[in-house]
Amino acid sequence: MIKLVLFSFLVFFSFFSVIARQGMWVPVLLQENIDEMQQMGFTLSADDVYNVNHSSLKDAIVLFGRGCTGELISNDGLLVTNHHCGYGQIQSHSSIEHDYLTDGFWAMNRNEELANEGLSVTFLIEMREVTDEVLAGTDTINDAILIQDKISENIEFVKNEAIAGTHYEAVVKPFYNGNQYYVFVNERFTDVRLVGAPPSAIGKFGGDTDNWMWPRHTGDFSLFRIYAGPDNKPADYSPNNVPYQPRKFFPIDISGINSGDFTMVFGYPGTTQQYLFSKAVQQIVEQRNPDRVAIRDAKLKILAEKMDANRVTRIQYAAKYASTSNAWKKWQGETKGLKRLNAVEIKLASEKLFDEWVNSNIDRENKYGNVLNTFDELYDQLLPYQKAKDYFDEIVMRGTDSYRAYSRLARNVRDKDTIDVDKELSFFDEHFKDVDPVVDSEVFVSLFQKYFYETDQRFIPEELSSLFATDNAYDVLLKIHNSSLLNSSQELKALIEKNDVERFKKALINDELFKLFESMSRIYYDSIFTQHRSISQKIEKNQKLYVEALLEKENDKMMYPDANLTMRVTYGKVEGYRPSDGVTYKHYTTLDGIIEKDNPEIYDYDVPDRLRELYLKSDFGQYANNKGELPVCFLASNHTTGGNSGSPVINAKGHLVGINFDRCWEGTMSDIMFDPEMCRNISLDMRYMLFVIDKFAGASYLLNEMQIVK
Ligand code: ARG
Ligand code: ASP
Fold first, then answer.
1. pLDDT of 563-601, one tens digit each?
2. What whole-number distance in Å separates Cα of residue 394 and Cα of residue 425?
3. Are strands 191-197 and 105-106 parallel, antiparallel or unpaired?
4. In the annotation, is 220 catalytic?
5. Is residue 216 within 6 Å of ligand 1 at its C-beta?
6. Spatial separation of the C-alpha atoms in residues 475 and 343, rounded to whole Å
7. Which residue among 325, 484, 645, 683 is the active-site one?
8. What CA–CA distance (Å, rounded) separates 575 from 126?
9. Is 637 known to be catalytic?
10. Which of 547, 573, 668, 696 could form a disulfide with 333 if both were Cys (CB 3.0 to 4.6 A apart)?
């Protein structure tokens, strides 16, 4: 069996230009894919997708915030993304009095739209390959650091040149692990207002229980509007700003989705690691994922219990819980999927072929002959530091609210001679709004025990081990947490208000919890981070060489660059799958399934009364399919990853038919290895979105500015 799977993979990899199901393609190079896309049914040209001289689909797509995608659906700057992408904003406008998370939010006119500090959306104006410019002058330098300096200098130059005389911003990003570089010229808007969001019982229906799973019934959307200055250019929030007029927006197609239909997802995939060395995959499966899952297990258990018991806690920790649980669950699916695929064996087999290819030619042997051995040694060296780093990241850095307070204050103590009283007060007002010190103390004690008992001696500072030398470490930890300034909103704010730097610093330096965090940070930088970084840099250098060799080896076959939060196109078709023996998943779900899951006793499945009424009346209007059902979500075989959330799912005509928001459980290893049989992206059907806006929320005035294709 393994042999068969192996064989089909090797065939698959060597012909993946033919069965190009996997792949996140660079929009400027789409000429190479367009024939296949058209064979699959796409009716537009590469030029319609990306062009800098006239408007194209790319002009209707934004990077939403720092890690999601959004798309324009009206000529007045109306934008749609996922509910889980707007979650932070919806939550920050929520309180017990205005609980928009629970009840939803609908601006009934433009004056009611809510501004969001810190949120921006970014349009791509142009991207261009600049490898030669970035690497210019580096071939005569021998010293690695000097090469890096030269590259940085070149990048600055390229960026400045690309945006000279404009209000645009530029970034240069490496592709193929530094074998190529592209410059991106972007236009970033900062006045982005919340227009509408369904209640969580729709937008997050199924919650963390259904997350990463099919069958799915989540109405995962939220609406925003981009505002610009009177000249249609980016402007910071002002009541005088006007709705942005985009170069392009998507018509919404409600004519129906069938199995086999062409689909394309166009957005901002964050990170993939398709060209990882076998041992790295093995370490993910055997060490990294199990470690991180176990740590988050401990934290989530505490949060879940507290959130169930108290409504205020539920609001305070909703976003934190969701983001902690999201990767936690994905890592578990990823581990399973990599094991099922025999990913390590597949990698080893292709490395064997690679080795033969290298050794069959003397020049190659000289250049690439050590690549695999080098990986092997470096990943062995990295392993203990990787473990310590994962523990530090999960437990210390991302573990507790009090560490967040610490890191904000530590910067002040270290680098500043004055206190920016207003700024600090507003930071801590926001911070403590979502903190319950009792909840945090339990998380703190539980995680720090884990750190102490499970990491190597050399990564534990004296300050922590001395606490465990007592026989009631639990109580001691608790006391340190409870008596700390970091957890007392009142005391901390009073201290800031005094505006006395000396006193401020002294109080913190003498705080036991602050001291403990200082000692943890110190040991991290001295004994973990520095070593980890130095080995990782060597791995990156070797990875660059490996990918250079692969590009040479694959030659004319298409090999896509790993995702790097730049705009990519991926395409496939609407299709279900078979998750396990004897089970077939259909390609879509309907409102019937929401009613099937309905259970007022379970938070994640508590269907709103109004939705149940509409169901009973079968009042679906123009949004029903030809069987009279109301479609909710659908599956397709597009290769997506984190960051693709909110991405438009585009049909053969270039119309919007769905919003991407997730992947299926059995396919979550696709960031490392794609399996065409099991990897599916999950999208919200636009008909359900329109139904919710129109029939459920009564915000049908919003439909007037959309272009709906029947
Ligand atoms: N799994 C999806 C993604 O990675 C959705 C996450 C948000 N939903 C949640 N229940 N936490 O972003
Ligand atoms: N849910 C992910 C996101 O937020 C998408 C994915 O990982 O498939 O981007």
1. 999 999 999 999 999 999 999 999 999 999 999 999 999
2. 27
3. antiparallel
4. yes
5. no
6. 45
7. 645
8. 33
9. no
10. 668
Our separate counts of H helices and E strands in the chain read 27, 22
- Tens digit of each residue's pLDDT (9 = 90 or more) over 473-484: 999 999 999 999
- Per-residue pLDDT, averaged over 101-121, amounts to 97
Instruction: Supply the residue whose CA is at minimum distance from atom 7 of ligand 2.
Output: 642
- In single-letter form, the type of residue at position 503 comes to R
Distance 270 CA to ligand 2 centre (A): 9
Q: Which two tokens stand for residue 417?
A: 């001679």
Q: Which of 187, 365, 343, 367 is nearest to 274 (CA)?
A: 343
pLDDT category of residue 630 using cuts at 50, 70 and 90: very high
Q: Which of 87, 91, 211 to mutate to test the pocket of ligand 1 (most atoms within 8 A of CB)?
A: 211
Tokens of 473: 């470490």
Contacts within 8 Å (CB) and 24+ apart, 150-159: 155/181, 157/133, 158/130, 158/133, 158/134, 158/183, 159/183
Look up residue 216 and give its amino acid.
Answer: R
Q: Is the N-terminal amide bond of 215 cis, ω within 30° of 0?
A: yes
Measured CA to CA, the distance from residue 668 to residue 685 in angstroms comes to 21
Ligand 2 binding residues, C-beta < 6 A: 640-645, 661-663
pLDDT tens digits, one per residue of 30-74: 999 999 999 999 999 999 999 999 999 999 999 999 999 999 999
Q: How far apart are CA 489 and CA 539, in angstroms?
A: 44
C-alpha radius of gyration, the chain, whole number: 26
Phi, psi torsion values for 622, nearest 5 degrees: -75, 0
- pLDDT tens digit string along 502-540? 999 999 999 999 999 999 999 999 999 999 999 999 999
**Which of these is catalytic: 191, 210, 220, 261?**
220
661 has pLDDT over 80:
yes
